[in-house]
Amino acid sequence: MEKHTTDNYELLCADWQKRMLQLDTAELMKKLPELRLEGSYLTLSHYHHRYGVSLQDGTICRLDGAPEEPISLFTRLNIYTLLWYCTGRVSSQDDWVPFRSLKDASPFAPAFQRSVIQVFSRTFSGHLPELERAFLALGGQKLAVSDLGYQLDAFDCIPVQFFFWDGDDEFPAQSNLLFRRNCVDFIHVESIVSIATEGLAHLSKLSGIPLKSGGF
Prior knowledge:
Blueprint: H1 2-20, H2 25-31, E1 36-38, E2 41-46, E3 49-54, E4 60-62, H3 73-85, E5 96-98, H4 109-124, H5 128-137, E6 141-143, E7 148-155, E8 158-165, E9 174-180, H6 189-207
Antiparallel strand pairs: 1-2, 2-3, 3-4, 5-9, 6-7, 7-8, 8-9
Helix pairs in contact: 1-3, 3-6, 4-6, 5-6
């Protein structure tokens, strides 16, 4: 079943790769000022790593760090869906809200709670130093809220605020993520789930703390 799911994601990425060739580069750069044209690539950053989308075949490559390192499915899907769904008409609603308060998010809220919030809480319980080290490695901006709060740029246009309260003998660890309400002007709301999931994957890798499954 796992293999089948992975294969489906790979097929989806292959489809998005073809769609990229349909996009008007100049128009896309107007919609997303963070994009840069570098040779035959459109470049952008995703969680403090630079990627290039080929204008020749739509593939995505890593432009910093280790170019040969495999790029995760979620990273590729996040980049493809950002480029496809960005509207260029950003609303003035710039307040920070939890995922469930985003437009059309309610059908995906239970999955977000299980796959993001509960995983975040359980994984980093008792690991504040390791978590902070990971936030800093991702270029995080410290926030004066919770036991440990940082803002990370999933994309320049989609910052994410991560908040973590460590547990003790009486209460388990708690966490939350906030997004700008207008983030859905740039990407489909369902992709916000995978953006958050990819953020946790980076935090796990850089902290050395394996991700734990969510609760019930």
